Recover the amino acids of this structure.
């Protein structure tokens, strides 16, 4: 694996899960792989889990790690090509990317959808420029349309907790006061569609995701029906995808908050969320504080997913 941006690059899913199990049981077995190799983590957006878990994964593999917050201390970067740079951005990404590439062996990039231009977001303008101009293997730490390290950790967690071979997994939209990207639900859907699980997406009308990510999932607008007999409830807010409402909040309907009444309809389901989560908007306190909430082991598996992917990248260089 040279670059990692989606489920496509992970290869055989069963093998990837086997690799992840090995990494989890033997976190320091491959320290020599990263010896004298530098991992650079570049953040255009805030992070807690991705920053720490990916840094930890690199250190477990013996790598040196550099973290750069573009918006704190670096020059503001121009990302559009062909513009007259007479504004507040003194450096162009066309120079900045190869310079960053010259200082490291592997680059991780976090760059969210900006909701200004749907085409730019869905063409992954920033991530793809890193792939094109850095000269180094690049992996996504959440880009405009996908969050593959999160989805891989989610899959690892479901495999660890599932009680039947083909669990019913439900992705539910939940309310949030601000517009959030579709990267997590898109990516989760893409990874769930790569399994043989029963996969259902439920959301209010108007929140339909890009059909390329929905794939073969069942879309159920009746949330109570969707919850019935579920083994896993995966909650996430996202802003509207469809035009003319792209990037807009259409509803903050609190009947979509994951609560004990809806969880009671399930097959004693586990509650999952990528975090950070707004309590009593996305999920009620009693659900996230219950024994059925697995958000902490899910977040802990972010080290495992990052280390499994980084190991494959190191093996390729
Ligand atoms: N789930 C996740 O990516 O968390 P952070 O935004 O804190 O990295």
């Amino acid at each position: 694996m040279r670059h990692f941006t989606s489920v496509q690059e992970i290869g055989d899913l069963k093998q990837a899960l086997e690799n992840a199990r090995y990494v989890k049981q033997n976190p320091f077995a491959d320290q020599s792989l990263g010896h004298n190799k530098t991992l650079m983590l570049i953040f255009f957006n805030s992070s807690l889990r991705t920053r720490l878990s990916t840094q930890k994964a690199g250190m477990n593999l013996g790598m040196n790690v550099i973290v750069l917050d573009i918006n704190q201390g670096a020059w503001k970067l121009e990302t559009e090509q062909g513009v007259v740079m007479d504004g507040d951005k003194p450096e162009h990404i066309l120079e900045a990317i190869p310079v960053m590439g010259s200082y490291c062996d592997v680059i991780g990039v976090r760059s969210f959808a900006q909701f200004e231009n749907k085409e730019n977001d869905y063409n992954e303008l920033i991530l793809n420029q890193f792939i094109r101009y850095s000269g180094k293997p690049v992996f996504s730490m959440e880009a405009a349309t996908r969050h593959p390290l999160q989805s891989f950790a989610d899959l690892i967690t479901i495999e660890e907790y599932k009680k039947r071979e083909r669990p019913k997994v439900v992705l539910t939209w939940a309310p949030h006061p601000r517009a959030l990207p579709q990267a997590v639900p898109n990516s989760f859907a893409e990874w769930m569609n790569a399994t043989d699980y029963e996969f259902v997406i439920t959301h209010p009308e108007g929140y339909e995701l890009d059909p390329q990510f929905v794939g073969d999932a069942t879309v159920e607008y009746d949330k109570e029906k969707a919850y019935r007999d579920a083994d896993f409830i995966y909650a996430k807010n996202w802003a509207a995808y469809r035009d003319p409402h792209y990037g807009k909040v259409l509803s903050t309907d609190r009947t979509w908050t994951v609560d004990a009444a809806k969880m009671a309809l399930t097959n004693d389901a586990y509650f999952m969320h990528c975090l950070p989560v707004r309590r009593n908007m996305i999920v009620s306190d009693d659900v996230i504080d219950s024994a059925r909430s697995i958000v902490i082991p899910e977040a802990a598996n972010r080290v495992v997913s990052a280390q499994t992917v980084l190991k494959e990248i190191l093996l390729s260089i």
